[in-house]
Amino acid sequence: MKGPLNGEIRKLQTRNTKLAESRAKAQFIVSAYNALSKARGVDAAIDTILALAMQLHGGSNVILYYLVDDQWLYKDVFGKKDSVDIRGDRLLQRTIFDRVISESFTKVPEEMQFRGPTMPANLKANTIVFPLVVGETTIAALKIDQRFVFHQLMTAELTAFFSYAALILNNEILNYNELQQAHIELEQIFQTNPDGMLIIDGDQIIRRINDSLLKLLELQDSKIIGRKLQDVLTVKNNDIKVETLLLTVLQEGAIESEAIVMGMADSEYHCIVTARALRLRGLKSGAVINI
């Protein structure tokens, strides 16, 4: 028998369901913001965005397209990463250039539909692309392939989250670009230094050598990298023992001495040899040698 009480119970049940959904949404968004704020580096930020989007919406794949040094790259939730020509994807182009959410719909085959009390009939799936915008520039676009339209209820929440994600990702890309530029400038300084320079690791393995020292030793880069220092460098000096040079440097911090350096054709060069400890992450784990 139906009565006013049954109606009130149904209203309470509906209200409780909506409150539970709202709470679940709020908890997810908070955890998503926390996860993204802890990401360090471009790859970590991208992986976090992909994982959160997949966790929330599923889909057959989640792909992030992002711009680095005027080139569009992509990475998907399965770890595939490559450069991409966005001109072949109209949906992606519209999202990037118009800075709007773009989507297309397909009907889900009958055999792939899951029946349940809350599932609509004739379920559809869509591919949706969200822009990640900073200022007036689209720095990235997130595509979710074959998402059930039934899951589109959190599109508004995702839009707000992606505004925050765009700021985080943009900052990491800027840092990456600055590091790349710094690396290029340091490499130029290293290679154009008139002094011979090489870098050894904690096992006295040669890891880097510049052109000046290659010419002095009359060697090629391919014959040097990866070899032991004592197998390549011959120094005539009682104060410098090449076999224990790294140990001496680590104990004393730095050394400097006049010496005769031997070339491959037994040529002798009177040089000043200096070596100083190379610190990586606060640890003395190698040395830089100038000749």
From TrEMBL:
Gene Ontology biological process terms, A to Z: regulation of DNA-templated transcription
Pfam family, one: PAS
InterPro entries documented for this protein: PAS (IPR000014), PAS-like_dom_sf (IPR035965), PAS_fold (IPR013767)
PAS domain residues: 182-253
PROSITE patterns registered for this protein in UniProt: PAS
NCBIfam families: sensory_box
Name of the featured protein: PAS domain-containing protein
Species whose genome carries this gene: marine sediment metagenome
Organism lineage: unclassified sequences, metagenomes, ecological metagenomes
